[in-house]
Amino acid sequence: MSDLPDDLFLILPDGSEDSPAAPTLDYSRNPVVTVTFAGNRLTRNAARAYQKEFGIGVMDWRMLVMLTRDPGCSVGQAANLTGIDKAAVSRALQRMEKAGLVRAEVRGGDERRKSWFLTEAGHALHAQMLPRALERQRDLLKGFSPEELTAFTGYLQRFLDNMADQADTPE
Description:
Blueprint: E1 10-11, E2 24-25, H1 31-54, H2 58-69, H3 75-82, H4 86-98, E3 102-107, E4 110-118, H5 120-140, H6 146-167
Antiparallel strand pairs: 1-2, 3-4
Helix pairs in contact: 2-5, 3-4
Domain HTH marR-type: 29-161
Organism: Phaeobacter gallaeciensis
Protein name: Transcriptional regulator
C-alpha cells in the first residue's frame, strides 16, 4: 500500500477550494493519467507513421521487434512480455503470416501450440524500420541526459513491477 495522500492526485473541476463539485483526477499532476495519455499518443502517432511509411501498424512493429529478440516465442509468451492481450497478438501474427513476414511451427503436434519466427521478409522489414524507430525515439527523448533516461526508465520499470503485483492481487 502506498502512503501517498489522495489529494496529491485530485482536483475540483472548477478549481475552487470550496466547489460543490466532486473531486476527480487531475490531468496535470497525476503520473498514472500522464503515463496513460502518453502511451495513447505514442501508440497513435507511431501507428500513423509506420502505416504511412511502411504499410504496417504499430502492433506489427511490436511483433517484428519481439520476434527479432525472442525467435520461436509463442503467442502467450509474446503477450506476457509486451503486456498486450493474447487475442491481439494472435491477430497480428496471423495478419503478418498472410503478408509473408512471419511463419509458425507447430509444437508437440498440437496445432494450438505454435512457435513464431520472422521470415526473410520480416527480418528485412525490421532492418528497414529500425532506423526510423530510433529516430522517433531520439526525437521523443530530446533534452534528456543519459542519467535522466536511466532514472526515468527505472521509474517506469518500478511502475510496471507495481502493476504486475497489482494484477496478481485478487479483487
